[in-house]
């Protein structure tokens, strides 16, 4: 019996495991196994590296939610005079609430996208079933990109809100404040922080 085999990739979906298994041509004609060898699957055992990456997304999501709850508690215990000024600005610029909501949704989508990419990197295999050398580099680059996106989004939000507040605060006659101040500072912060 000829034991030579070739590796074929079986794709179980866009984000699922791609496993490589040996295909024996003699099994295709054999009916004693019940299925053709092209339908057989091999399951790779879970390694410590896989376990770390599967739990990594869970821990990062919990850290993110903890930071959101911490920020909410800081707003609750702040100075009442500052809160009064904040509410005046929010009433003067209602679009800043919409901007904060859209900004949070976009930040959450990008954060989860980084987690999905890190989970996808786990399942990159070479033809021998091991991990290629570039997987570790991909994980480092993905982690740095996630940190960069987080810092970029946070600083963009701070510059936009600070510029809007500064324009409102330093204008003597509040009726002279430009109507599209929030959009103007979104444009300014995008132009400055992207470069």
TrEMBL record:
Subcellular location: Cell membrane; Membrane
Principal location class: membrane
InterPro entries on file: Choline_transptr-like (IPR007603)
Pfam families documented for this protein: Choline_transpo
Coiled coil start-end: none
The keyword Transmembrane helix is assigned to this record: yes
Domain of life: Eukaryota
Keywords from the UniProt entry: Membrane, Transmembrane, Transmembrane helix
GO function term, MF aspect, one: transmembrane transporter activity
Gene Ontology cellular-component annotations: plasma membrane
Membrane-spanning intervals of the chain: 90-111, 131-154
Membrane topology field: Multi-pass membrane protein
Role: Choline transporter.
Assigned protein family: Belongs to the CTL (choline transporter-like) family.
Protein name in the entry: Choline transporter-like protein
Species name: Trichogramma brassicae
